[in-house]
Amino acid sequence: MKHVIRITAAALLAGSFALQGCALQSSSADVYTARQAQREQTVRLGTIESVRAVKIQADNGQPSGLGALGGGALGAIAASSIGGGRGALLTGIAGGLGGVVAGNAIEGGVAKRNGLEITVRLDNGDIRAITQEATPEIFRAGERVRLVSGSGVTRVTH
């Protein structure tokens, strides 16, 4: 029983680290890192050509494996309590495999955020496309906007 509690605690801890990592990464126009604050940035003006809804994958499409690991451990623990002897082993294996699939899917869903691809025609005629996390700020074709650039990051704002 002690090993079950340890495995459960480790899985929950690993899952919380995975979720924390997702929560700390932001591609919102409203979020600045400490390094980006109080730095001079370039501002260019332009008009929105188009706006398209996209999904932003926080983990660059590569799951960390923590969701699968945690799901597998929890699934195996939960399923192994069903039956006894050899039945518990088989249900534990099946529960672990199901947990791996479910944990991986949950991790993938948590890592995706709603975003916008905003195409802007600058006043000098150049066209730029910037993808950023969706916020309550609404962008529409024909609106005047600012492109704020610095430290390799460009944001679209009103």
UniProtKB/TrEMBL annotation:
Source organism's superkingdom?
Bacteria
Q: What is its main location?
A: membrane
**Record localization:** Cell outer membrane
The answer to whether keyword Signal applies is yes
Q: Which UniProt keyword terms apply here?
A: Lipoprotein, Membrane, Palmitate, Signal
Q: How does it sit in the membrane?
A: Lipid-anchor
**Annotated Gene Ontology cellular component terms:** cell outer membrane
What is the protein name given in its UniProt record? 17 kDa surface antigen
Task: Specify the species.
Answer: Mycoavidus cysteinexigens
